[in-house]
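lol so apparently i was supposed to do this last week
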Amino acid sequence: MGFAERIRNGLLVSCQYSAGDAFESPESAARFAKAAQDGGACGIRANGRADIAAIAAATGLPVIGIRKRKMEDGRILITPSLEEARELAEAGAAAVALDCTRRGQSFGALARVAAIRKELGVPVLADIATMEEAVAAEQAGADMVLSTMRGYTLETAAVKQFQPEFIAQLRRAVRAPVIAEGMIASPSQAGEAMRAGAWAVIVGTAITRPHELTRGFVQCVQWAAGEKLRLFAAVDLGATNTKFGLVDGEGQVIWSSVKATPAKSGREALLDHLSDVVERCQREAQALKRVPAAAGIAVSGWADPATGRIAFATSAMPGWTGAAVAEFVGASTGLPVIVENDARAAAAGERAFGAARQVRDFVCLTLGTGVGGGVFVNGRSVTGAAALGSAIGHIVVQPDGEQCVCGSRGCLEAYVNLEAVLRSAMPEHYDSGRDLVSAANQARSGAVKAVERMAAYLAIACQSLIHVLDPELIVLAGGLAQDNALLLKTLQERLDATVFARGQRRTRIAASRLGYQAGLIGAAALARDC
Ligand SMILES: [Zn+2]
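anyway here it is w/ zinc ion bound
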């Protein structure tokens, strides 16, 4: 069988090394070639007669021989003379390759193609970088063209990765078989090369250069480690208080503080307030000899993370609707700024650092003064067309029920807001959600009744959410969900009894792991990914 048939539709491995390599010897090259053969390679490309002889003896595979030599212009040229080609053939090379690029042609490559064929009787393979070079090499008599030099010549220096479309172009331009070589970094790229019309594929570095492979892994590990060390300014703007702080790339709060929110003072005062607290974060970072990479701002209104504006705010914050928060705070602090609704930010925090780590489909409910919601579908936060989505608090759980702050009646939030929950424990009296939850954990009947009532309303909303979204997880966050095992258990039981096809579903219920700083951590998660 001829050389072309032996390598057709196969993978060849280029077994070469640089000076100073740990594998710098013909014996090492032959061992790599033997390993390649064991893996199914149908041929080898190798440099110099010693390596070619060692590889041919060890494997019996056809070897494409080359001879690299430094020329008077200071750069390497592949097989620059007929004498060197003769040595390769005598050492056992089944074919000889030479540089037929424009530079190679300036050293007489095209005449050499014809001379090698005539004198040595082996197939001649042209290493090229452009279509014109391929056509010229074929006209000069080359048996095959190889894309080896693409990206490695002056004319093609802009090419930084393997281009299957170049293989397809070569196929259209020349009759000779086209071999894909150069910058093929993965098995899938080798497959693409074949689909683009390659006769065979040659891979080198990605198989036979362990130090290059190691360097690629090291870079990715170091990059990810650097991400963990980054620092973010995080702000949680509530109607009463603003929490702000520094959070690292692993979701750890490094420093935090609280300041009253000037909720009624209008847009400008609120924007100045946000700039002030972010600048305070920058000063704290400076004291640690660090610089925040970005700022995340979670707000208790509807924000559009795509535009950085407030999409809708209630009369609790007059003038706030439409405020260009990201633009203003970005200009005054010099940081990239992302703005998001606080509950959707909390969901992002759960996904980045908390109970929903790496979960693609989940729902997060924040149970505090009001009820907030965040929904992730297929790994993306559901913000909606006007950034008003994921408003789980306004799912109706009681037709013509209690008046809700949104103007409608019977919303989940009308029943599960902090004040309503505390009231439903009567005649027992509690000052905070934390007190009520701890009393429920001690089986005080009013507190237990209040938590069970909460679970009943949540179950109605969650049942619908599960039927629509089929989530993997429902996370309960916020003050009323903290340490509240009774709430989780009662909700679980109700859903087990009511949800359609419950046994086939994977929906779990879990408590937030971010605790009382979920808003800050969520804001940092958004900043991290912005
Ligand atoms: Zn409502």
